[in-house]
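Entry 14: structure prediction run for EXORDIUM like 3. Input pasted below.
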Amino acid sequence: MSTSCFSLLILAALAVPSPIAVVAWRPWPHHFASSSNATTTSIVGGGASGAAAGLGTMKKYEGSSEFVKLRYHMGPVLTANITVHPIWYGSWSPKQKHILRAFLRSVSASAAPHPSVAAWWSTVRLYTDQTGANVSATVLLGAEHSDRRYSRGRALTRLDIQSVIHDAVNARRRPIPVNPRGGLYLVLTSADVAVQDFCVQVCGFHYFTFPAIVGHTLPYAWVGNSATQCPGSCAYPFAVPPFAAGLRKAERPPNGDVGVDGMVSVVAHELAEMASNPLVNAWYAGEDPSFPTEIADLCEGIYGTGGGGAYTGQLLVDGESGAAYNMHGVGGRKFLVQWIWHPYLSYCSGPNALDHQ
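Run finished. Output tokens:
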């Protein structure tokens, strides 16, 4: 099963040997067990901060590795126009929905200023199927469904997420359309909803629905709002976990909502993996499809040049608000989005990389 943060490769404290293997990172408690020697470094021209011990002189620290064996396993990628269907489970404010909708609309917004979310998606598009067809350039915001009544309760299992999708596609009023070819079903749970493994192992995950539950086989993802449960883990670097207090400071979120701004990068993570590995039989590293390491897993926690471990990499900073971001979207929105693995360059890449300027 594909999960965000589910099969992390452990980075020992903040010291990085050379050469390195690719490391995905989130601030789970074990990363700080021996971090007393961590150092905090200011980013030139940005004001963002992070631990950057042991970087040495490595030119491509941000995930580069000759040891990564990302392979194509002959399954489909999403080559047809992609339509994302958000399913809002629980209590969501209009402002929170606007932030996430703006991000989804930004994926195909080629007119956004550089560095843009659309330019980030162009790396996802490099992944192809066995015919040579690329992941689609078109990502649309589709029909939505809201479940304000918590119909499946406030504590959900992983299979309950599929039941939420069943309810959305079978709703009496305005059911979400079923589109096995290009539809992506995105379940978003509010801050007062607990989900199995949330805040312990995962911030989000993707898989495909079972016909026995939903009636169809559909690629889907779940992402939770961590604002009141584990912002220091799942909304990092906009929040810092208590056990890391004093080691680094939290960054200011670009849209003013720690939980939702943190969700943006997790949503991006899952979208990239759903597009390149929708049925968990296309692009991934490792030999076990039950625990694949996918194109976003390889770069988790990396947002800019030099990133890796507890260090986000070099970020941009809004001159008025002081918020940290690395990509532009529609309507003047700014977002912080993790990088993804570049299939030809064999390292983590994003449009804000210094060698892309």
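Notes: Helices lie at 94-106, 117-124, 158-169, 211-214, 231-234, 258-276. Will compare against the previous run tomorrow.
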